[in-house]
């Protein structure tokens, strides 16, 4: 679904490749995993993650990291989080496709600013903000592609080749 949506609506707008995959795939070469946090009655949570790793996130909350601190994102070095040693957390402000789009854009900008050329979104935690997974996937791809667009087509002097994100994977447990 995502690849057909991408090729139909965003062909030529971005050089970033968007793929689908499973979290359990150890062949994934992503340099980092982006988790998406949601507000809850007790602060914030990241739905859909393994319980053994939720302790790291509870410790962040206990250390005073609030939901508002996560709007632009936070990158952690976690050497025991499956195959990902770099984990980012980005807030999804509310529920709805526009919030999925905004959170995806914020995550893409955070990772690009920190020079990650290949990273993955934890799609299970992102999709919780939308009623349908298909809508969440579409909004995530839109956020990625719109954040990646460069307004360079009509410039007279091309700049030196800037850093570019090569691939973003949407990983799910299903």
Describe this structure in words.
There is one protein chain. This protein has helices spanning 2-9, 51-62, 97-113, 123-127, 133-148, and strands spanning 17-22, 33-40, 43-45, 74-77, 86-91, 118-122, 167-172. The protein is an alpha/beta fold and 174 residues long. Strands 1, 2, 3, 4, 5, 6 and 7 form a seven-stranded mixed β-sheet that branches.
Keywords, separated by commas or semicolons:
single chain; 174 residues; 5 helices; 7 strands; 33% helix; 22% strand
Shape: globular
Given helix and strand content, the structural type is alpha/beta
- What's the pLDDT, averaged over the residues? 80
Task: Outline the low-pLDDT stretches.
Answer: 1-12
Number of helices: 5
Computed CA radius of gyration, to the nearest angstrom: 16 Å
Helix content class: 25-40%
Termini separation: 15 Å
Number of strands: 7
Summarize the helix and strand pattern as letters.
HEEEHEEHEHHE
Biggest sheet record: 7 strands, mixed
**Strand content range:** 15-25%
How are the elements arranged and paired?
Blueprint: H1 2-9, E1 17-22, E2 33-40, E3 43-45, H2 51-62, E4 74-77, E5 86-91, H3 97-113, E6 118-122, H4 123-127, H5 133-148, E7 167-172
Parallel strand pairs: 1-7, 2-5, 2-6, 6-7
Antiparallel strand pairs: 2-3, 4-5
Helix pairs in contact: 3-5
Short structural description:
The protein has helices at residues 2-9, 51-62, 97-113, 123-127, 133-148, and strands at residues 17-22, 33-40, 43-45, 74-77, 86-91, 118-122, 167-172. With 174 residues, the protein is α/β, with parallel strands linked by helices.
């Amino acid at each position: 679904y995502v690849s057909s949506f991408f090729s139909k609506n965003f062909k030529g707008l971005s050089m970033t490749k968007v793929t689908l995959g499973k979290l359990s795939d150890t062949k994934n070469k992503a340099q980092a995993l982006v988790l998406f946090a949601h507000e809850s009655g007790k602060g914030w949570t990241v739905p859909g993650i393994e319980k053994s790793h939720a302790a790291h996130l509870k410790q962040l909350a206990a250390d005073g990291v609030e939901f508002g601190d996560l709007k632009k994102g936070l990158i952690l070095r976690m050497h025991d989080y499956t195959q990902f040693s770099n984990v980012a957390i980005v807030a999804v402000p509310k529920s709805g496709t526009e919030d999925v789009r905004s959170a995806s854009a914020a995550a893409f900008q955070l990772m690009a600013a920190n020079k990650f050329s290949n990273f993955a979104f934890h799609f299970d935690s992102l999709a919780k903000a939308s009623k349908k997974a298909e809508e969440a996937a579409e909004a995530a791809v839109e956020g990625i592609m719109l954040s990646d667009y460069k307004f360079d087509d009509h410039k007279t002097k091309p700049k030196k080749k800037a850093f570019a994100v090569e691939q973003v994977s949407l990983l799910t447990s299903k």
